[in-house]
Every structure is written in C-alpha cells, then in structure tokens.
Specification:
The protein is an all-alpha fold. It has one domain: Tetracycline Repressor, domain 2, CATH 1.10.357.10. It is about 75% helix and about 0% strand. Helix 1 crosses helix 4 and helix 4 packs parallel to helix 7. One of its GO terms (molecular function) is DNA binding. Keywords: DNA-binding, Transcription, Transcription regulation. InterPro entries: DNA-bd_HTH_TetR-type_CS (IPR023772), Homeodomain-like_sf (IPR009057), HTH_TetR (IPR001647), Tet_transcr_reg_TetR-rel_C_sf (IPR036271). This is Transcriptional regulator TetR family.
C-alpha cells in the first residue's frame, strides 16, 4: 500500500473518529497496514495527522479548482456549492484542519500544515473570484460557513452565497 493510500485511510479515520479517540493501534487497523508500514511513512500520531491533512488539502483544492471553468461571481458561487457538497459528504462535523488545531494546539507541524492550507484557500478564492480585494472577506465567509454548517446545514451555504453576491455588487473594495 502506498503512502498516499495510507494517508487517505488516515484522513477517513480522523474525519469519522476525531483526533482524541483513535489510538495508534486503531489507526493502524483502519489504515489496513502493519504497524511497521504505518510507522515507516508516519512515525508519530502527529505525523499521521499531517499526512491526513495534506491528503485532504489536495482533494479539496482539486475540487475548488474545477470552479475555474467559470469566472468572477459565478466561479465564487460555484466554489461555495462545492463547499456545501464537501461539508455534507466529507465534513459534517466541521473543518478537519480546525479540529486538528484544537486537538494539537502546540504542534508546529500541524499548525504550519493548516496555515499553508488556509493560505492556499485564500489564494484560490482570489483567483476564482478575480477579486484580490475580496479574498479575505471571501475566506472569512468560507471559514464561517464551515463552522456553521454542522448546525445550519445547507442554509449556511445559502447565507454565504447571499453575502457573496452582496460583496460583488457593492462598490467598496477595502477589505
């Protein structure tokens, strides 16, 4: 089994069980490999978290990149449609990156992995929207939506899309 396949299995395990509950022995079983193989690629639980987050990051950004077939407001609204589908299917308990930060607040590797992910989301939202001036506002809406989704469900996506449309139609560009 490849390192990427193990990371995929770890991502699924952490998404379903959180970070506190699964022991390394349980993660080994959920990964479908021997302890030796697991430790070969991921020598600690924290490195397993980083591997899972990196794998998830690649998947999520690839989905958002598909929105580039549109432009401006349409691409941005499509990105939030993708976010809604992602939350429903892959993150009903909220953002895995934010949950990892909460579980491992002092781990530098996890912190830098999450920061890199979030910065790339900001950059991609700027690219999709064609509005660098709105990138931080769009990111705040993105993050607020991931936080609100477990409580509000699809209405969090709808509310974000209303706010995005309003942002695009105002003349202010100082965010």
């Amino acid at each position: 089994m490849s390192q990427q396949q193990i990371a995929e299995n770890l991502e699924r395990a952490f998404s379903q069980k959180g970070f506190a509950e699964p022991s390394v022995a349980e993660l080994k079983a959920l990964s479908g490999v021997s302890m030796r193989t697991l430790y070969k690629y991921f020598p600690s639980k924290e490195s397993m978290v980083v591997g899972a987050l990196d794998y998830r990051h690649q998947r999520y950004l690839a989905l958002l990149e598909q929105c580039a077939q549109h432009s401006g407001l349409d691409a941005t609204l499509a990105a939030f449609d993708v976010l809604g589908s992602w939350m429903k299917e892959h993150a009903p308990k909220g953002c895995l990156s934010v949950n990892a930060l909460a579980a491992f607040p002092d781990n530098a590797d996890i912190n830098s992995t999450v920061e890199r992910h979030k910065q790339q989301v900001i950059d991609l939202l700027a690219k999709l929207s064609g509005r660098d001036d709105l990138s931080h506002a769009l990111f705040v809406l993105h993050e607020g939506t991931t936080t609100a989704y477990p409580i509000l469900g699809e209405s969090a996506i709808t509310a974000a899309k209303v706010a995005i449309t309003t942002l695009f139609t105002t003349n202010s560009t100082s965010y």
